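In keeping with the milestone schedule agreed at the kick-off meeting, the structural modelling team has produced records for the first pair of proteins. Each record is given below as a sequence line and a structure-token line. The laboratory manager (R.T.) confirmed that both were archived under the project's standard naming scheme.
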Amino acid sequence: MQQPFDISIGDVDYAVFPEGNDTYVIFKDGKEYVHIQKDTDLQWLKLDPETAIPVFEIDEEINNIGREIMAYVPEEEDEEDLEDELD
């Protein structure tokens, strides 16, 4: 599974924690902010905080976060890559 990573949109920093199945927990200003799920590459859904059911309304901030998640490229050098190189 993908490791947590940080993204920035304008002057706002977010921490992204992948949960699997295209679902992510987003932290903003050091606090848990929202859970989101990928619908399509351009459309992301906010999950209801109590039921975890997708909320089907357009939210530009959530879509912007999703676009940054899709654009994120993890660091090349990690432990698995190093182990593969040694084999």
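The second protein of the pair:
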Amino acid sequence: MWVELICGLIVYRLLKRYLYEDDDLLDLDTSHSSALFAVAKRLEQLYYGSKVYVGLQIPDADLGSRQNVDIVLVTKGEALVISVMDVSGFISIDKNGNWVCTGGSSNKTKCLPDPTVETKRLVPILEAYLEQRGVVLPEGYLSSKVICPNPKFSAIHSDVFPPEVITYDQWTQLKPEQKSLLSGWIKGAFHSAKKKMQESLNEKLCSTLSTAPMWDRLELKGNKYVLGEFMEFKGKQDDLQALINIRRSKVSRLIVQKISMFGFAHSRILVLYSPRDYRNEGASSSEWKEVTVRSSTEVVFHPQNSTKVRKYKLSSISSMSLSA
């Protein structure tokens, strides 16, 4: 009997490790996503009044699939498709334009396809999607950049990197008034009529991008993020019943707050959620609803670029946003 119990426990742990990820291994899923949001936050600081959209999934009519777009930045004068290369080590470019990364966290040499080629490829795909939704951009309005935000990124012969690449050193030197690396299409002040046309175009562009397909996102404790697909909740039956209304067709966002009950700290948690309003972005504070569930309740989530489904305890989550 004891042999069967021990064997069963071993099989259970192996299956759990294979199918799901423990919370202490979150870095495997959060590294790239957290880098995207860190870059997005700094872009908003660099460009006052800009809009940043993270984790888009733009439909590609030619391929019949969705293409991942790390970031789209919309400023007063242009829009940029941005790919974030969170790579570390000594980076050089070979004769074919590939990036050769030596050292870094893996202490191995690896070769990466030229990221500027892939990022440029996304520009006409996004333009076609926008045009399909009634937003026609002037020629040259939408361009591309590759940002390398990892402090352990060391460029070998940085002068050979194409102008579309912003190395870590260049990234840290950018200031709010310095737009030469990320801007360059429109110079000088707008005439009144032209300024109104520009504002109207930006309004349409931002409205369209805000309703474009996106990855679901988890914000975890410690300012970590995971992009991917929300699948379901796991837990006790009464908790699942309390959370039954939290589904993407009805809810756009939820926030998790820790509370104490019956003298046991954090034994239960308060979940606030906002009913989805397809007419407006988000919901007012008066529209937030709440449920209380066990802190052991879990979110089943499939991270972007991962072959495994993960489970995250609600107590480790700050918020979750669900794409329409």
